[in-house]
C-alpha cells in the first residue's frame, strides 16, 4: 500500500469542461474554504468574444482551432472510405463554451428507458424533470409548467430570428396538414409539432449561457478555487482500491516547450473525472480499469477487468444540405466570410443584445416521427424493425429533428459568394454504436483508437434518406429558394425527376406535386450520406450506467464497478450542482475522503433524442444529490432516489402521448405572421385522456 502524501486540495477535477465548471463553482460558492482544483488541457475563455458572442461559434470549427480536440475515426466502408472526425470541447467550459447554443430537451421516455430498461432506479423522467427545471431561467415564455424560471442559465429566442426560419414555418404550415405548430417544441412530452427554436442565450444581454462565466469566473475573489490550464490528466492515483489523486503532464498544444515530466496532486475528499466520452474512458484505461486484453496490450497492470470501458460509443448523425438563397434572405454567410461591414454592424448590435452575433441562425424546427402511409413508405422496409422495436410504444420519441439553418456550413473559400440557407436533419437514435480506446498506455497525448461506426446499419440510412426528402420539399417551396448548391447534394442520374437544379429564378408553388424517387435515386441519396454525414458533437455512452453483466461501467449511484469511491456522472458539456447551494450552507469538514467521481455523459446508457447539453445538466443535478449523500451532507431530506411531495402546477394539462389526431385550422396556409401566433390560434388537437405520472420537485 502506498504512503499517500498530504493532500494538496479537498477536491480535484480532472477536466475543466462544462461539468467541472458547474460542479466546482457550486461547491466553491457553497463553502469558500473548500480547496478545489480544476485541471484543464485547454485554455481560458473569460470574456473572449469568440466564446461569449454566440454567433462566432463557426470559428471553432477551423482545423487550426485550439478550443477543440479533433478525434479521427478509423476509415470506414460505410462512410465511403472516410475517416470521420469528431470534435470535443478543449477549454474552460468545454462544449458549452463553443457549441451551437441549441436548446433541445430529451423526451420523457428517454429517461424512463434509463430507469426501466437499464435498471437504474430513480433515473426516470418523473425524477429528472424537476432537475431539468432547476437548471434554467426560461425567458422564451412565462408560466410553462415543465420549464424553470430561477436557474443560472438563460434560455431565449436569441437576439434575432431570421426570415428564413419564419418562411420555413409558413411553408410547413401550408404543406404538412398532419402536424401542427407549437409555442414550445421542448415541453418534454410531445413531438411532431413545428415551432421556433430556443437557444442557450441570455435574451437581455445576447451572451452565451455557459457555466465557465456563471459558475467559475464570477468567483474570482475565491483564492481556494484554483484553475490550472494547459494540463493533461494521465491517470488516477490509487491507494489500494481507493482513488487519492491524479497524475498529469503539460499539454503539448498550449505548452509545447514545457517539461513532460509527470506531476501528482492529491485530494483529501474527492477525485473527479470530467473528461467526456473520449477522455474519461482513456483515463480509466491508463489507470488499469478496462478490458484485460487491451490493458495487457499496452503493458498496463490490471486493476479492474471491465470490458465495457470505451464501448457503447454513441452520437447523432447530422447533415446540413445547402440551398442557394435570394438577396432578401437573412443569413450568416457574410459574417462567416469575415465581411468587415457585416461584422461591424453586428458587433454594434450585440452591445444591445441584438443581431446575428446574439443568435445562431437555427431558429425553427421539428422533432418528427412518421404519421402517414407515405412517411412509412419513404422510410422503407429497412426501418420497419426499428420502428416496431423502439418507436411504436414511445410516442414522444422523434425519429429525426430537422429545421433550417441560415448559412452554408461548408467551405466558403470555394463556394460562390452569395447567400445560402441549409436544411439540417439529425438521426436522433442511430442503431450503430462504436468504441473509443487508448492507443498508448503511457502517452496521454496519443490519438484515440476510435471507431465511430456511423451508418453501419441500414435503418440509419433509411432515416437520413427520409430527412433529405422531407426537408427538400420544404426548401423548394420557400420564397428565398434559388436552387440547390450542387456540390453538397446527391448526384442523381441524368433524366431523374429528382435531379438537382443549380440557379433557378424562384421556388415552386406550394401545391406543386412532390418529387418521386426511384430505387436508383434512393441509392444516390445513400451514397451522398456516406460521403457527407457528420457528427453532431453529441458523444456519450462510453462508461455506461448499466448492470455490469450487461455491459455497464457504473451503477445507479455512479460507482465504477470493481472499485470503491470511484464514480462517473455528467458530461464535459455541463454538470450542475445547484442543489448544493440551495440546501447546504456549508460542509462538515470532518467528513472522510470519498475518493473518485466521474462527471460526464459517458454514463448515459442509451441515447437521447436531443442535443445533449440539457441532459448533461440533468445528470449533473442528479449527481449532486448522490455526491452530497456520500460526503455525509444533508439535502433537506431529499435522497438520490426519491423526491418530495411538492408537485409542479400545471402538469395536469400535459399529456405524454402525442395527439391521436391533429388538424390544422383551415386558414393556416394563408397566415403570414406566424412568429406572433399563439398556440390557441394554431392548434386544434384531439388528445387521448392518459396523463403522465405525478411529477415532483425537490
From TrEMBL:
One Pfam match: GMC_oxred_N
Alphabetized GO MF terms: flavin adenine dinucleotide binding; oxidoreductase activity, acting on CH-OH group of donors
Protein's recorded name: GMC oxidoreductase-domain-containing protein
Residues annotated for FAD binding in this entry: 233, 537-538
Family from the record: Belongs to the GMC oxidoreductase family.
Record key words, sorted: FAD, Flavoprotein
Cofactor: FAD
InterPro entries per the UniProt record, alphabetical: FAD/NAD-bd_sf, GMC_OxRdtase, GMC_OxRdtase_N, GMC_OxRtase_C
Chain ranges of the Glucose-methanol-choline oxidoreductase N-terminal domain: 89-112, 276-290
The UniProt record lists the keyword Flavoprotein: yes
SUPFAM superfamilies, A to Z: FAD-linked reductases, C-terminal domain, FAD/NAD(P)-binding domain
Amino acid at each position: 500500500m502506498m504512503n499517500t502524501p498530504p493532500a494538496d486540495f479537498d477536491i480535484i477535477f480532472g477536466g475543466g469542461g462544462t461539468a467541472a465548471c458547474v460542479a466546482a463553482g457550486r461547491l466553491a460558492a457553497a463553502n469558500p474554504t473548500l480547496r478545489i482544483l480544476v485541471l484543464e488541457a485547454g485554455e481560458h475563455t473569460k470574456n473572449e468574444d469568440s466564446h461569449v458572442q454566440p454567433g462566432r461559434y463557426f470559428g471553432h470549427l477551423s482545423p487550426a482551432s485550439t478550443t477543440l480536440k479533433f478525434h479521427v475515426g478509423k476509415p470506414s466502408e460505410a462512410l465511403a472510405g472516410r475517416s470521420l472526425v469528431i470534435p470535443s470541447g478543449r477549454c474552460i467550459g468545454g462544449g458549452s463554451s463553443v457549441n451551437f447554443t441549441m436548446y433541445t430537451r430529451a423526451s420523457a421516455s428517454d429517461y424512463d428507458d434509463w430507469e426501466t430498461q437499464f435498471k437504474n432506479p430513480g433515473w426516470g423522467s418523473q425524477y429528472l424533470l424537476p432537475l431539468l427545471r432547476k437548471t434554467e431561467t426560461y425567458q422564451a415564455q412565462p408560466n410553462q409548467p415543465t420549464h424553470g424560471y430561477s436557474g443560472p442559465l438563460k434560455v431565449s429566442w436569441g437576439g434575432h430570428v431570421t426570415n428564413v426560419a419564419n418562411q420555413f414555418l409558413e411553408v410547413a404550415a401550408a404543406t404538412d396538414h398532419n402536424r401542427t405548430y407549437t409555442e414550445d417544441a421542448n415541453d418534454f412530452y410531445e413531438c411532431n409539432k413545428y415551432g421556433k427554436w430556443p437557444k442557450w442565450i441570455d435574451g437581455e444581454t445576447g451572451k452565451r449561457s455557459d457555466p465557465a462565466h456563471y459558475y467559475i469566473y464570477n468567483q474570482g475573489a475565491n483564492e481556494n478555487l484554483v484553475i490550472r490550464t494547459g494540463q493533461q490528466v494521465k491517470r488516477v492515483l490509487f491507494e489500494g482500491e481507493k482513488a487519492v489523486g491524479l497524475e498529469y503532464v503539460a499539454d503539448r498544444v498550449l505548452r509545447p516547450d514545457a517539461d513532460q515530466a509527470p506531476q501528482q496532486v492529491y485530494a483529501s475528499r474527492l477525485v473527479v473525472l470530467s473528461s467526456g466520452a473520449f477522455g474519461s474512458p482513456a483515463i480509466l484505461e491508463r489507470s488499469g480499469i478496462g478490458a484485460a486484453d487491451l490493458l495487457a496490450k499496452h503493458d498496463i497492470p490490471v486493476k479492474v477487468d471491465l470490458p465495457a470501458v470505451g464501448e457503447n460509443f454513441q452520437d447523432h448523425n447530422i447533415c446540413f444540405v445547402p440551398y442557394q438563397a435570394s438577396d432578401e434572405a437573412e443569413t450568416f454567410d457574410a459574417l462567416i466570410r469575415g465581411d468587415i461591414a457585416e461584422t461591424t454592424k453586428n458587433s454594434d448590435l450585440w452591445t444591445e443584445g441584438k443581431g446575428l452575433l446574439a443568435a445562431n441562425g437555427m431558429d425553427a424546427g421539428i422533432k418528427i416521427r412518421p404519421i402517414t402511409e407515405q412517411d412509412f413508405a419513404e422510410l422503407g422496409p429497412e426501418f420497419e424493425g426499428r420502428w416496431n422495436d423502439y418507436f411504436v410504444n414511445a410516442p414522444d420519441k422523434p425519429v429525426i429533428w430537422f429545421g433550417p439553418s441560415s448559412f452554408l456550413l461548408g467551405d466558403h473559400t470555394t463556394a460562390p459568394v452569395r447567400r445560402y440557407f441549409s436544411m439540417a436533419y439529425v438521426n436522433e437514435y442511430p442503431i450503430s454504436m462504436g468504441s473509443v480506446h487508448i492507443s498508448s498506455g503511457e502517452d496521454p497525448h496519443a490519438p484515440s483508437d476510435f471507431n465511430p461506426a456511423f451508418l453501419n446499419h441500414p435503418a440509419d440510412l433509411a432515416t437520413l434518406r427520409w430527412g433529405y426528402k422531407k426537408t427538400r420539399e420544404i426548401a423548394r417551396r420557400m420564397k428565398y429558394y434559388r436552387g440547390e448548391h450542387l456540390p453538397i447534394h446527391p448526384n442523381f442520374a441524368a433524366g431523374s425527376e429528382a435531379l438537382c437544379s443549380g440557379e433557378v429564378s424562384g421556388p415552386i408553388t406550394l401545391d406543386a406535386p412532390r418529387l418521386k424517387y426511384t430505387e436508383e435515386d434512393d441509392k444516390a441519396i445513400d451514397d451522398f450520406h456516406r460521403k457527407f454525414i457528420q457528427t453532431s458533437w453529441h458523444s456519450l455512452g462510453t462508461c455506461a450506467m448499466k448492470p455490469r453483466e450487461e455491459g455497464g461501467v457504473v451503477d445507479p449511484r455512479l460507482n465504477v464497478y470493481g472499485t470503491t469511491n470511484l464514480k462517473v456522472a455528467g458530461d464535459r458539456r455541463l454538470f450542475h450542482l445547484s442543489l448544493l447551494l440551495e440546501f447546504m450552507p456549508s460542509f462538515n469538514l470532518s467528513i472522510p475522503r470519498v475518493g473518485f467521481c466521474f462527471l460526464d455523459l459517458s454514463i448515459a446508457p442509451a441515447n437521447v433524442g436531443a442535443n445533449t447539453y440539457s441532459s448533461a445538466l440533468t445528470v449533473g443535478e442528479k449527481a449532486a444529490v448522490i455526491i452530497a449523500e456520500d460526503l455525509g451532507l444533508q439535502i433537506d431530506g431529499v435522497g438520490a432516489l426519491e423526491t418530495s411531495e411538492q408537485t409542479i402546477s400545471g402538469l395536469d394539462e400535459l399529456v405524454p402521448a402525442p395527439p391521436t389526431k391533429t388538424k390544422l385550422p383551415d386558414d393556416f396556409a394563408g397566415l403570414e405572421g406566424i412568429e406572433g401566433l399563439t398556440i390557441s390560434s394554431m392548434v386544434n388537437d384531439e388528445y387521448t385522456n392518459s396523463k403522465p405520472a405525478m411529477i415532483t420537485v425537490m
